[in-house]
C-alpha cells in the first residue's frame, strides 16, 4: 500500500516513531494508503532542517525566489491531471472540480505570490528633521496548518506567501487529505527550492499540529480550520507571543432580495450551497429570501438543487461527491436530525445515499434543503460544513440584516439585489470580512481575505499575506 512520507530537508522520510495512520478514499470508504503518524520528534527534525537554510533563503534575492516559485507552479500545472486525480481520491470531490478549482488555484497561488513579492515594498515617511523607512524582513521559521476541504488549494495559499517572503516553513496538511501536499515535495526539488525551505510533516493535529505551534523556533502560525482548534492554537501561541493568522469557521448568510435577478440568484445560490459537498468555509448555508418572492424562488432553487447529482467523483456527470470522512458524514446527518427535532421541514434530500458499484461503501449525502426553522435555532447557528442549506423568509432589510448577523461567525455574506443603493447599504452592515454582491466565490487574490468575530483573526491575500509573513522594522535617520 502507498505510504505517504514526511518531506524534511528535501527528502521523503518516515515518521521517527515508525507508525502509520490509515488514509481513506471517501468515495469507497476503504483505506487506500498509509500516512506517516508523526510527532514532536519529526517536527523538531523539520525545524532543524529549516534552521540550516533559514539565513540563506532569507538572503536569496526576490528575483531568484520568484523564478523558483514560478517553476513550482509550472511543475504542478504539468502534472495537473495527476494532482487532480489524487485530490479527488483523497478528498471525495468531483474530479472536474479538483482540476478546475483546486489544482488550478494551487498553480495560481504560486504564480501570484512569486510575482507579488517582486513588487512588495516598504514605506518611507519624511519629516522636517528626519526620514523614516520601514524594512520588511522574513520572520524566519513559520508554521502553516491547513484543513481537509480544499487540500492543496489552502496548503499552497499559506506556504506560497511564506516562502516568497523569505521564510522557511514547517507545514502540516490535514491527515485526512495528505496526498497532494506530499506530491509537492518532488515538484519543489525539481524546481530548485533549497532543501529545508519547505518541510511537510504529516499526522494528527493534537500531535504534529500542537508540536508546530509550541516549538519555540517557529515564530508565526498561519492556521485554517475550525474555530475550536483556532482557540486551542491561540491559547498555546499567546504566551510565546507568536504572530497568528487564524482563518476559521463560518455560517454564511446568502440574502435574496425581491428585486434580484431571480434566475441568476437561484442558480448561483445552489452553487454557493452545494459546491464541494458544501464543505467550503465560504458556502452560503443560510438562505434568506424576501417573502414576496419566497415561493417562486424556492421552486426555481429546488430545480437547480436537483441538478446536483450525487455520485462517483470520478464520473464527469457527478456534481456532488463524497463526504470527507465517516465521522463527518455522521455529523452532517446528525445535524439533519437536529433540524427535524427543531421543527424543520426537509423539502429536498435529507438522507445518506448509496452509490451502486465501486462506491457502495462510500459516504454520500443528498443535497438537503430545510425550511421552517427560526434564525436562532442551533441548525441556523452552528457550522454544519456539509450539503445542507436552510431557507428562511424575511420581510424587511432591517430584519434580514439582524438575522444574518446573529451568529458567532462572520466570514462571508452574499447579497442578491439589482438596487445599487441597497447593495452598498446592506454590504456595509454585514458583520463579515467578505461580501459578495450578485456573485459568489469570485476571488481576486490581491484582496484581503478573512473573517470577523469567531471566523478568525487577521487577513490573508495579496499584500496582507506578505505583511503577515514579514516583520516590520522602522529605521529613523536624522538629517
Ligand atoms: P480542524 O480545525 O479540525 O483542523 C484543521 C487543521 O488543524 C488540521 O490539519 C488539523 O489536524 C489541525 N489541528 C487539529 N488540532 C490541532 C491542534 N491542537 N494544534 C494544531 N493543529 C491542529 O478543521 P478541519 O480540518 O475539520 O476543517 C474544517 C474547518 O475549517 C471548518 O470549520 C471550516 O469552516 C474551516 N475552514 C476555514 C476556512 C477559512 O478560510 N476561514 C477555509 C476552509 C476551512 P487533524 O486533521 O489531524 O485534526
Any descriptors?
479 residues, alpha/beta, Aldehyde Dehydrogenase, Chain A, domain 1, Aldehyde Dehydrogenase, Chain A, domain 2, 2 domains, seven-stranded mixed sheet, six-stranded mixed sheet, 39% helix, globular, binds NADPH dihydro-nicotinamide-adenine-dinucleotide phosphate
Mean pLDDT: 98
CATH architecture tag of the largest domain? 3-Layer(aba) Sandwich
* Count of spatially separate domains: 2
If strands are numbered along the chain, what order do they take across the biggest sheet? 15-18-19-14-13-20-21
Oligomer: single chain
Protein model, in words:
There is one protein chain. By secondary structure, the protein is of the alpha/beta class. The chain has two domains: 2-248 and 455-478, Aldehyde Dehydrogenase, Chain A, domain 1 (3-Layer(aba) Sandwich); 252-444, Aldehyde Dehydrogenase, Chain A, domain 2 (3-Layer(aba) Sandwich). Helix content is 39%, strand content 23%. The protein is built from 15 helices and 23 strands. The protein has helices at residues 40-59, 62-78, 80-91, 95-116, 151-164, 179-191, 205-214, 227-237, 262-274, 294-305, 326-341, 378-381, 397-404, 420-429, 462-468, and strands at residues 2-4, 6-8, 11-13, 20-25, 30-36, 124-126, 130-138, 141-145, 168-172, 198-200, 218-224, 243-247, 252-256, 284-290, 345-348, 352-353, 364-365, 368-371, 388-394, 412-416, 434-437, 456-457, 470-478. The protein has a seven-stranded mixed β-sheet with strand order 15-18-19-14-13-20-21, sandwiched between helices. It has a six-stranded mixed β-sheet with strand order 10-9-8-11-12-22, sandwiched between helices. Strands 1-5-4 form a three-stranded mixed β-sheet, covered by helices on one side. Helix 14 (420-429) links the parallel strand 20 (412-416) and strand 21. Helix 2 (62-78) packs antiparallel against helix 4, helix 2 (62-78) crosses helix 6 and helix 4 packs parallel to helix 5. The chain is globular and about 65 Å long. The model has no long low-confidence stretch (mean pLDDT 98). Bound molecules: NADPH dihydro-nicotinamide-adenine-dinucleotide phosphate.
Amino acid at each position: 500500500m502507498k505510504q505517504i512520507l514526511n518531506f524534511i530537508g528535501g527528502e521523503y522520510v518516515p515518521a521517527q516513531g515508525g507508525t502509520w495512520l490509515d488514509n481513506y478514499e471517501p468515495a469507497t470508504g476503504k483505506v487506500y494508503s498509509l500516512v506517516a503518524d508523526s510527532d514532536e520528534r519529526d517536527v523538531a527534525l523539520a525545524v532543524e532542517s529549516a534552521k540550516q537554510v533559514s539565513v540563506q533563503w532569507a538572503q536569496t534575492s526576490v528575483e531568484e525566489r520568484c523564478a523558483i516559485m514560478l517553476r513550482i507552479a509550472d511543475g504542478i500545472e504539468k502534472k495537473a491531471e495527476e494532482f487532480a486525480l489524487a485530490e479527488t481520491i483523497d478528498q471525495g470531490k468531483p474530479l472536474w472540480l479538483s482540476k478546475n478549482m483546486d489544482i488550478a488555484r494551487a498553480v495560481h497561488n504560486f504564480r501570484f505570490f512569486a510575482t507579488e513579492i517582486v513588487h512588495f515594498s516598504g514605506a518611507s515617511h519624511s519629516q522636517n528633521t528626519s526620514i523614516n523607512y520601514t524594512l520588511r524582513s522574513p520572520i524566519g521559521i513559520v508554521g502553516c496548518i491547513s484543513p481537509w476541504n480544499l487540500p492543496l488549494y489552502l496548503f499552497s495559499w499559506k506556504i506560497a506567501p511564506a516562502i516568497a517572503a523569505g521564510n522557511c516553513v514547517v507545514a502540516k496538511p490535514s491527515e485526512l487529505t495528505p496526498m497532494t501536499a506530499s506530491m509537492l515535495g518532488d515538484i519543489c526539488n525539481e524546481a530548485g527550492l533549497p532543501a529545508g525551505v519547505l518541510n511537510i510533516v504529516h499526522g494528527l493535529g493534537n500531535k504534529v499540529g500542537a508540536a508546530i505551534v509550541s516549538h519555540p523556533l517557529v515564530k508565526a502560525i498561519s492556521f485554517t480550520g475550525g474555530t475550536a482548534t483556532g482557540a486551542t492554537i491561540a491559547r498555546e501561541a499567546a504566551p510565546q507571543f507568536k504572530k497568528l493568522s487564524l482563518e476559521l469557521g463560518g455560517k454564511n448568510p446568502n440574502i435574496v432580495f425581491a428585486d434580484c435577478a431571480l434566475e441568476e440568484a437561484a442558480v448561483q445560490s445552489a452553487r454557493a450551497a452545494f459546491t464541494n459537498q458544501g464543505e467550503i468555509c465560504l458556502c452560503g448555508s443560510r438562505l434568506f429570501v424576501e417573502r414576496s418572492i419566497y415561493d417562486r424562488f424556492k421552486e426555481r432553487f429546488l430545480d437547480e438543487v436537483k441538478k446536483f447529482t450525487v455520485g462517483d467523483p470520478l464520473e464527469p456527470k457527478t456534481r456532488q461527491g463524497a463526504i470527507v470522512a465517516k465521522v463527518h458524514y455522521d455529523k452532517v446527518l446528525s445535524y439533519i436530525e437536529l433540524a427535524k427535532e427543531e421543527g424543520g421541514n426537509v423539502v429536498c434530500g435529507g438522507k445518506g445515499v448509496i452509490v451502486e458499484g465501486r462506491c457502495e461503501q462510500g459516504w454520500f449525502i443528498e443535497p438537503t434543503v430545510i425550511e421552517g426553522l427560526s434564525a436562532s435555532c442551533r441548525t441556523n447557528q452552528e457550522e454544519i460544513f456539509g450539503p445542507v442549506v436552510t431557507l428562511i423568509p424575511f420581510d424587511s432589510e432591517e430584519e434580514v440584516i439582524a438575522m444574518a448577523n446573529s451568529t458567532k461567525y462572520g466570514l462571508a455574506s452574499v447579497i442578491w439585489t439589482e438596487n445599487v443603493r441597497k447593495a452598498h447599504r446592506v454590504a456595509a452592515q454585514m458583520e463579515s470580512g467578505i461580501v459578495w454582491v450578485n456573485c459568489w466565490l469570485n476571488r481576486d487574490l490581491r484582496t484581503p481575505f478573512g473573517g470577523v468575530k469567531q471566523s478568525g483573526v487577521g487577513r490573508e491575500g495579496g499584500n496582507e499575506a506578505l505583511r503577515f509573513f514579514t516583520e516590520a522594522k522602522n529605521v529613523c535617520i536624522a538629517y
